[in-house]
Amino acid sequence: MKVIFDEHSKDWVLNIFDKSVDGDGFIVEKDGTRIWTPEGDEIKSNDLAIIKKGSTKFIAGDLSSLMKETKGEI
Amino acid sequence: MAFFEGLKKIIPAKVAEESFEFDLKLSNSKSKSEVNFKVDKKNKILTIYLNKLTFKENEILKKHLLKDFGFNKLKFVESDSIDLITKLIAYNKKDDGKTLNFFENILTPNDLLALRDSLFLRDEFYAGNNVSSLKSDISYAHGERGNIISNLCSAGYFEEVMIPLYNRSKTDFHEFYDLAVDRGVKALFVNGRMSVTDITTEIERRLVSAHSSGLKSINIHGIGEKNVQNIKKSLSAIIEKGKSNFLRKNIAEESNVIIVEMILS
To answer: What ipTM was predicted for this assembly?
Structure first.
């Protein structure tokens, strides 16, 4: 099942995972540590496309990331 | 799913049961709706208006979503990404992977990923869709090298030039590939930001570069009326100067697309 969120409900969704957004727009842990995508990049809230299981993966919405996601490589 | 058990505590049980296999949309926008949900049977979407939930209902929803997420029964997807995801899934199903498979053990892994993304971009371009954000994504993910690969791919170089060349001579292929991708000499892709002077200067520079590299020709590509006209003006300017080292040119033009092959002397 898909749970669809948008920019207005993004913070609510991040809150489920105890994540928030820092002053520069990056998604952070409770202690302020920036989280990483499976590709090892920090990720801005604006770039977030998918959150999926697998030690909770935060996947960006660019072509390269979503190509990997749809091919099951992430 | 645990989530739907929780949902029954927020919306009428009958609605929750009817929406059992629907996707869930979380909305935090202002709504005129008097209830905290909306059912879209046609698109199979159940919308929950978060700002109409009580604190307790909010906590119930979060708790149950997290529980099902933990069991890998759902994933969260941002609404603006759904279109690209849907297109990628359809593309991955229909694409035979022929071009990519050919280059699998030939190109570096990074170039292969850039080519894979570029093939999708080309598919979208052929379908008449706006590809500007995809071009930016390729540039961001793969840098200038990715841009060149994407341009070569969109112009058909990989299938029409490189595969036949590789089958004929692996050495010639690698020489060509290095020139085309590493130095970007072989093909100039004119974009809307380039003035006639920019194009003229760039063609002249590439003619000199190609000559010293032993290339027999360079190609100029343009898509769109403005780019086509600017390329023609640049060619006229170069011919008028009469100082360049090209022997003749072949022009293929159709529906605001131009390809000029400049044969070097």
So the answer is: 0.95
